[in-house]
Design goal:
By secondary structure, this protein is an alpha/beta fold. Helices cover 33% and strands 21% of the residues. It has two domains: 94 residues, 2-Layer Sandwich (Nucleotidyltransferase, domain 5), CATH 3.30.420.40; 156 residues, ATPase, nucleotide binding domain (Nucleotidyltransferase, domain 5, 2-Layer Sandwich), CATH 3.30.420.40. A hairpin with a 3-residue loop joins β1 and β2.
Length: 270
């Protein structure tokens, strides 16, 4: 990029920058704490022309306004730009992407998917989904993903109850496993050959595959990408997906795709 920009990936725990720094986000803190964290992440604004932000929803990505109540509650309804308190903010372009749309946009560029129909599923504390038609990421009226996967019916609840870190922990505990283990620790047991841990991840993959079967056909998906902390264990649950989705290309989203996606907002190139 020719213009001077800062690219930020704002999460509930940390604010990460394209330069590799991490600042605690204080998403459950006061207005002053949240504003201070944002200002610290941005740093000196001298000569700054653009700020690209990847942030979870609910959020108004057109207006740059916080709409979350489960985190960043202290700044509900406020504009991101105002919290940054930059004296020259009117000269700085603020651009925003949903935290699932951003890596998908970046992956389209990095993997050359402009002629493909591609989707990204992020699995962590929750379940995110975004898709692109011939390289164009599909969004709703306020910039959020055009389609939600997390609340699709699954078993006796919704898909996110099963396909998420908490879903893994709950399933493991229900089957007699250690209730104190995290999803990552359960995955480590699975890689070590523990049958119960392997079954939990396999069941999660089967549930996800069942929901995706018709959706992949409807969206005519060529590529299915995975991101998020739980997806680092993709090899533990990908077999049911490959069995059901057949020719759909499945792999992890490229590292750095979030910032590649944000960068493209200022270059207008994919």
């Amino acid at each position: 990029m020719d213009m001077k920009t800062i690219l930020l990936d704002v999460g509930g725990t940390f604010i990460k920058s394209a330069g590799g720094t991490q600042i605690p986000s204080r998403s459950n803190g006061s207005r002053e704490e949240i504003a201070h964290a944002l200002q610290k992440a941005i740093g000196p604004a001298d000569g700054l022309e653009g700020i690209g932000v990847s942030i979870p929803g609910p959020f108004d990505y057109n207006e740059g306004r916080f709409l979350m109540k489960h985190k960043f509650a202290a700044v509900y309804g406020e504009r991101f730009e105002d919290l940054c308190n930059l004296g020259q903010s009117r000269k700085i372009q603020f651009k925003y992407l949903h935290d699932v749309n951003a890596p998908l946009l970046g992956a389209v560029k990095m993997l050359g998917l402009q002629d493909c129909n591609a989707a990204l599923i992020t699995i962590g504390t929750g379940l995110g989904f975004s898709y692109a038609v011939r390289g164009s990421v599909q969004v709703s009226y306020n910039g959020s993903p055009a389609f939600s996967l997390w609340n699709r019916p699954c078993k006796d609840g919704i898909l996110e109850d099963v396909v998420s870190a908490r879903g893994i922990c709950a399933a493991y505990a229900r089957s007699g496993g250690d209730i104190s283990l995290s999803a990552k620790e359960i995955s480590q047991r699975a890689y070590a050959g523990e049958q119960l841990a392997l079954e939990v991840y396999g069941t999660m993959g089967s549930c996800l595959a069942q929901v995706l079967q018709d959706l992949a056909r409807k969206l005519e998906l060529d590529v299915l990408l995975f991101g998020g902390q739980v997806s680092s264990s993709l090899s533990l649950f990908e077999k049911p997906l490959r069995d059901v989705l057949g020719p759909v290309w499945i792999e992890a989203v490229p590292q750095g795709a979030v910032f590649e996606g944000l960068s493209s907002l200022f270059t207008n190139k994919l």
